[in-house]
Amino acid sequence: MLDRALLADLAELTLTTAKRAGATYADIRLGETRREFSFARDARLENFDERLTEGFGFRVLIDGAWGFYGAQRLDSESLRVGALRALDNARAMRSIQKQPIELEQLPAHEAEWIMPMAKDPFAVDASRKADLLLAICASARDAGADFCTASLSIAREERFFANSFGARIAQTRTRLAPSFTAVAIDRAAGRVATRDSLTPARGAGWEYLENAGLIEEASQAGAQARAKLTAKPVTPGDCDLVIDPSNLWLTIHETVGHSTELDRALGWEANFAGTSFVKPHMLNELRFGSELMTIVADRSQPGGLSTIGYDDDGAPADSAEFPIVENGVFRNFQMALGQAHLIGLPASNGCAYADSPTAFPIQRMPNISLRPNPEECSLDDLFADVENGVYVVGAGSWSIDQQRDNFQFGGQLFYEIKNGKRGELLRDVAYQGRTTQFWSALDGLGDAATYHLDGTFTCGKAEPVQLAPVSHGAPPARFRNIRVLNTSNDG
Predict the structure, then answer these.
(1) Which domains can be identified in the chain, with CATH numbers?
(2) Which parts of 220-355 are beta strand (E)?
């Protein structure tokens, strides 16, 4: 653990240097990130890696132009030099800055936030982690898989943030991501089937893994991978879909989460599938989906991968509590510090993140979730009104165009729905559509009892690439007349 008093002293030194140089604003992030990754294949542990990185990132505003410098060091001389270089970078940017950056005044919070957990996963012996991964692989193979791989990723971020407004914020959060893939082979037919884990990554301690049922799920996955080899191929065409939260989270992420990032809408960000069809003039005007569609941003959901006390601009979590789409109408972009004025709004909404202290903070998603039906509605109720359809479970392959409009998604498990009942297993399924047409086809939602939180450890954005953790909650949802593809060579 880092010495908080030392970090505070280093921050004061750097901010004082910026103030004396005439900066109108400055902030600094100091801290360390600890990561651990373990990987097993069948009956063998193949990798166990642990690493610790530390550093700082200093950001300064001079005459409406940003300057930044970061380094993997935490000593007074490195920070003094870093501050001077950030100031030089800001002065250099003034000559090419087309529009000055304007910042809103954020409250000067002094706070400490530590993610609650019962058991620190870094305190758990490596042997216990290896035993868990090997047991997962054995369980899948005993149930019918020919091969199985399993992995566990753990991360802890410790950060100290200070800015020239007077904010001083210390935060620590931990997250973990279990994963496995069961593989079954039909050598005679030349066919391979896989089933990936459905257990999501979470902002949590080791107790989450103890209660996640990974070994039991691996047994199901081994049997399901084997069953997929002889499953009936899907008949392509338009049909109704019931999409499980374990699949729908990725559709929310790609079609709604990324498309409503203001930096993409402004053309500032085009890495990883381009900009966005959503434009600033569409705010409060665009019909994004049906009236059942309400998607909210938040940073307070227990277990959420983006749950934290303050974002990397120093904005409190409640700044990131807002509807993105409300009853089908587009209501809010996600914004970081200095973006709101570009579309005539007074303030950003707590959506900044840097994946290390040495990275420039950019606009990133908080947790983004589809609200469940306030009225009672079970999964079986969603099936009941489907004559011909497909039930989609688990995230799979995905593709989306450069405007976040046309898309195609696969999955892990697919079941036929006939005459209101879930039927036999299908294979070779993908669904495609256009974002607003797809969400306008939403006509059924599960209730709060069916809601589930999923997400990803590694959402990629920016150049150089930054990876961010984010969760997405949803109930199962029913969509009418969606194009379904058969993805096999003989389909």
Answers:
(1) 4-230 (3.30.2290.10), 233-486 (no CATH)
(2) 232-233, 237-243, 295-298, 322-326, 329-330, 352-353
